[in-house]
Amino acid sequence: MEEKSLDRRYNQGGLLLASRIFTKYLGFFTGMILAIVGSVFIIGKLQESSADIEGAVGDQMKLKIVSSSPGIIFGVLGTVLMLSTILQHAVIELKDQPLFLNSYNIQVNSMDKGQPAATPADNNTNSALMDSLLKAKP
Fold first, then answer.
1. Where do the domains of the chain lie?
2. Torsion over CA of 37, 51, 54 and 30, rounded to 10 degrees?
3. pTM of the prediction?
Protein backbone atom coordinates (compact mmCIF):
# COMPACT_ATOMS: atom_id res chain seq x y z
CA MET A 1 0.00 0.00 0.00
CA GLU A 2 2.92 2.33 0.64
CA GLU A 3 4.18 1.82 -2.90
CA LYS A 4 0.76 2.62 -4.39
CA SER A 5 0.39 5.73 -2.25
CA LEU A 6 3.85 7.00 -3.24
CA ASP A 7 3.06 6.29 -6.88
CA ARG A 8 -0.20 8.24 -6.61
CA ARG A 9 1.60 11.09 -4.82
CA TYR A 10 4.13 11.44 -7.64
CA ASN A 11 1.38 11.10 -10.23
CA GLN A 12 -0.45 14.00 -8.60
CA GLY A 13 2.78 16.02 -8.51
CA GLY A 14 3.30 15.39 -12.21
CA LEU A 15 -0.23 16.51 -13.00
CA LEU A 16 0.25 19.66 -10.92
CA LEU A 17 3.45 20.40 -12.83
CA ALA A 18 1.71 19.86 -16.18
CA SER A 19 -1.16 22.16 -15.18
CA ARG A 20 1.29 24.86 -14.04
CA ILE A 21 3.14 24.67 -17.36
CA PHE A 22 -0.13 24.77 -19.31
CA THR A 23 -1.35 27.80 -17.35
CA LYS A 24 1.91 29.66 -18.00
CA TYR A 25 1.78 28.74 -21.67
CA LEU A 26 -1.86 29.77 -22.05
CA GLY A 27 -1.33 33.11 -20.28
CA PHE A 28 1.79 33.89 -22.30
CA PHE A 29 0.15 32.89 -25.59
CA THR A 30 -2.99 34.94 -24.90
CA GLY A 31 -0.89 37.95 -23.88
CA MET A 32 1.16 37.60 -27.06
CA ILE A 33 -2.01 37.54 -29.20
CA LEU A 34 -3.28 40.68 -27.44
CA ALA A 35 0.02 42.46 -28.02
CA ILE A 36 0.10 41.44 -31.71
CA VAL A 37 -3.49 42.61 -32.24
CA GLY A 38 -2.55 45.88 -30.56
CA SER A 39 0.45 46.31 -32.83
CA VAL A 40 -1.73 45.65 -35.89
CA PHE A 41 -4.12 48.35 -34.69
CA ILE A 42 -1.21 50.75 -34.20
CA ILE A 43 0.31 49.98 -37.63
CA GLY A 44 -3.13 50.28 -39.25
CA LYS A 45 -3.53 53.69 -37.54
CA LEU A 46 -6.93 52.76 -36.15
CA GLN A 47 -8.31 55.72 -34.18
CA GLU A 48 -11.27 55.80 -31.82
CA SER A 49 -12.53 58.22 -29.25
CA SER A 50 -10.40 58.56 -26.16
CA ALA A 51 -10.30 55.46 -23.97
CA ASP A 52 -8.69 55.12 -20.59
CA ILE A 53 -7.58 52.24 -18.44
CA GLU A 54 -6.70 52.38 -14.75
CA GLY A 55 -5.04 49.92 -12.42
CA ALA A 56 -3.54 49.88 -8.97
CA VAL A 57 -1.37 47.50 -7.00
CA GLY A 58 -1.99 48.27 -3.35
CA ASP A 59 -1.62 51.90 -2.32
CA GLN A 60 1.89 52.38 -3.68
CA MET A 61 1.57 51.79 -7.42
CA LYS A 62 -1.11 53.23 -9.68
CA LEU A 63 -1.34 53.24 -13.47
CA LYS A 64 -3.61 55.24 -15.76
CA ILE A 65 -3.40 55.22 -19.55
CA VAL A 66 -5.49 57.54 -21.71
CA SER A 67 -5.23 56.81 -25.43
CA SER A 68 -7.22 57.27 -28.60
CA SER A 69 -5.60 54.17 -30.12
CA PRO A 70 -7.02 50.82 -28.97
CA GLY A 71 -3.72 49.27 -30.03
CA ILE A 72 -1.94 50.87 -27.05
CA ILE A 73 -4.58 49.47 -24.68
CA PHE A 74 -4.30 45.98 -26.19
CA GLY A 75 -0.51 46.13 -26.08
CA VAL A 76 -0.46 47.13 -22.41
CA LEU A 77 -3.01 44.47 -21.45
CA GLY A 78 -1.10 41.81 -23.36
CA THR A 79 2.17 42.81 -21.73
CA VAL A 80 0.62 42.78 -18.25
CA LEU A 81 -0.87 39.34 -18.89
CA MET A 82 2.46 37.96 -20.12
CA LEU A 83 4.37 39.42 -17.18
CA SER A 84 1.88 38.16 -14.62
CA THR A 85 2.01 34.61 -15.95
CA ILE A 86 5.80 34.62 -16.19
CA LEU A 87 6.41 36.09 -12.73
CA GLN A 88 3.74 34.08 -10.89
CA HIS A 89 5.26 30.91 -9.47
CA ALA A 90 3.27 28.13 -7.82
CA VAL A 91 5.37 25.87 -5.62
CA ILE A 92 4.84 22.14 -5.99
CA GLU A 93 6.20 20.27 -3.00
CA LEU A 94 6.28 16.50 -2.61
CA LYS A 95 7.43 14.93 0.64
CA ASP A 96 8.62 11.35 0.80
CA GLN A 97 7.25 10.12 4.06
CA PRO A 98 5.46 6.95 5.08
CA LEU A 99 1.72 7.15 4.89
CA PHE A 100 0.68 4.04 6.80
CA LEU A 101 3.80 3.18 8.82
CA ASN A 102 4.31 6.43 10.68
CA SER A 103 4.52 7.47 14.33
CA TYR A 104 0.84 8.44 14.46
CA ASN A 105 -0.41 5.03 13.33
CA ILE A 106 1.98 2.81 15.28
CA GLN A 107 1.71 2.84 19.04
CA VAL A 108 3.87 0.85 21.40
CA ASN A 109 1.96 -1.13 23.99
CA SER A 110 4.31 -1.62 26.89
CA MET A 111 1.77 -2.34 29.65
CA ASP A 112 3.50 -5.58 30.54
CA LYS A 113 6.56 -3.60 31.70
CA GLY A 114 4.48 -1.40 33.94
CA GLN A 115 4.69 1.62 31.68
CA PRO A 116 1.72 3.35 30.04
CA ALA A 117 1.17 2.92 26.32
CA ALA A 118 3.14 5.31 24.14
CA THR A 119 1.36 8.23 22.60
CA PRO A 120 2.16 9.92 19.29
CA ALA A 121 3.86 12.66 21.32
CA ASP A 122 6.45 10.07 22.47
CA ASN A 123 8.93 10.70 19.70
CA ASN A 124 11.84 8.67 21.13
CA THR A 125 9.84 5.46 21.53
CA ASN A 126 8.07 5.83 18.20
CA SER A 127 11.23 6.70 16.30
CA ALA A 128 13.02 3.68 17.80
CA LEU A 129 10.08 1.48 16.81
CA MET A 130 10.06 2.93 13.30
CA ASP A 131 13.81 2.35 12.97
CA SER A 132 13.45 -1.26 14.08
CA LEU A 133 10.52 -1.86 11.71
CA LEU A 134 12.26 -0.31 8.73
CA LYS A 135 15.54 -2.16 9.35
CA ALA A 136 13.89 -5.56 9.98
CA LYS A 137 14.35 -8.03 7.17
CA PRO A 138 11.65 -10.63 6.43
1. 2-87, 101-138
2. -10
3. 0.59
